[in-house]
Design brief:
The protein has two domains: 4-50 and 149-315, Rossmann fold (3-Layer(aba) Sandwich), CATH 3.40.50.1100; 52-144, Rossmann fold, CATH 3.40.50.1100. It is 46% helix and 15% strand. The chain is built from 13 helices and ten strands. Strand 4, helix 5 and strand 5 (117-120) form a beta-alpha-beta unit. It is an alpha/beta fold. The relative contact order is 0.16. A six-stranded mixed sheet has the order 1-2-10-7-8-9, sandwiched between helices. The protein has a four-stranded parallel sheet with strand order 5-4-3-6, sandwiched between helices.
Length: 320
């Protein structure tokens, strides 16, 4: 995937676009779960999510290699689709982003704000992804997958920041969509020679990666109808699966109700807004609180881009 030199190069690239995000130990969260809890606040990134790191590293890599395309096409549920136009605007490259029907209204608006053309297609991310790949082939555009070595190397920079800032972590909980985040954490841990266990988190209503890890091969699901759109994937990436199989301690499934409760708790205790995927890691820690009693644990708050109507229902104690 990458070595330490590659990771440090990525960190320098990311540093030109954004400062390191903070990691805070919140006493009220510690009291709730009975262990030392650190939150890695990727919701403080320029697009409100960790994905921005991967986009800037990918575009810089293409620039250095003289391979900048005339246009780019990708598919997303929102944060990846902000990352690519955020990075591409530096080079004046137009970006078309495919999203499924019913996608987050405010994420769509954010993508347009960063300069993307947003096209609606299909009923879920995987249908939008297939159409993006087809359209890119027809139009001879550069298709940006959700899982790519440069994207993984970019998002891994948050793991480097976390592991340097908080030593001797026993466990890190990481949400899983297409897998770039958890793969970056696993690889960074291994390069740094740490013993920290990495626990992946999926939505119970989008369990494809968990099923695939159990089966030892890619297992698709018929649907991924969770309000945690950043984890709503039906077809895992094979490369990501292999990294997760080898490097993750286990995969935890969290219900939509647990995710909503975690969002509410994070807001009440830290006054940070977490989207569904962003709260999933803390939801998994709450589920495993007895297992982590007295230990030093980190959770990745991967993003805070949630529609106002969805967040309003969460604050009212409802499950969107």
């Amino acid at each position: 995937m990458f070595d330490l030199d590659g990771l440090e190069d990525a960190r320098r690239t990311v540093a030109r676009a954004m400062p390191p995000t903070p990691q805070y130990r919140w006493p009220s969260l510690c009291e709730r779960v009975g262990c030392e809890v650190w939150v890695k606040h990727e919701n403080h990134a320029p697009i409100g999510a960790f994905k921005v790191r991967g986009g800037v590293v990918l575009l810089e890599e293409l620039h250095r290699e003289g391979r900048l395309p005339r246009r780019m096409v990708t598919a997303t549920r929102g944060n990846h689709g902000q990352s690519i136009p955020f990075a591409a605007r530096r080079f004046g490259i137009p970006v078309t982003v495919f999203v499924p029907r019913g996608n987050s209204v405010e994420k769509n608006e954010a993508m347009v704000g960063w300069g993307a053309e947003v096209v609606t297609f299909g009923d879920d991310f995987d249908e939008a992804r297939v159409e993006a790949e087809r359209r890119a082939a027809v139009e001879e555009a550069f298709v940006v997958p959700s899982f790519h070595p440069a994207l993984v190397r970019g998002v891994a920079t948050y793991a480097r920041e976390l592991f340097e800032a908080v030593t001797d972590l026993d466990t890190v909980y990481v949400p899983i969509g297409m897998g770039s985040g958890i793969c970056g954490v696993i690889r960074t841990r291994d390069l740094m020679g740490l013993r920290t266990e990495v626990v992946g988190v999926v939505a119970a209503r989008a369990p494809a990666m968990a099923r695939s890890v159990t089966a030892g091969r890619v297992v698709s699901t018929d649907s991924a109808r969770t309000f945690a759109d950043g984890m709503a994937c039906r077809v895992p990436n094979e490369q990501a699966l292999e990294v997760v199989r080898r490097g993750a301690a286990r995969i935890v499934e969290v219900s939509d109700a647990e995710i909503a409760e975690a969002m509410l708790t994070l807001y009440r205790c830290t006054h940070n807004v977490a989207e569904g995927a962003g709260a999933a890691a803390f939801a998994a820690l709450c589920q495993e609180a007895s297992r982590q009693a007295g230990r030093r644990v980190a959770v990745v708050l991967s993003g805070g881009n949630v529609d106002a109507e969805v967040f309003r229902s969460v604050l009212a104690g409802e499950v969107p």
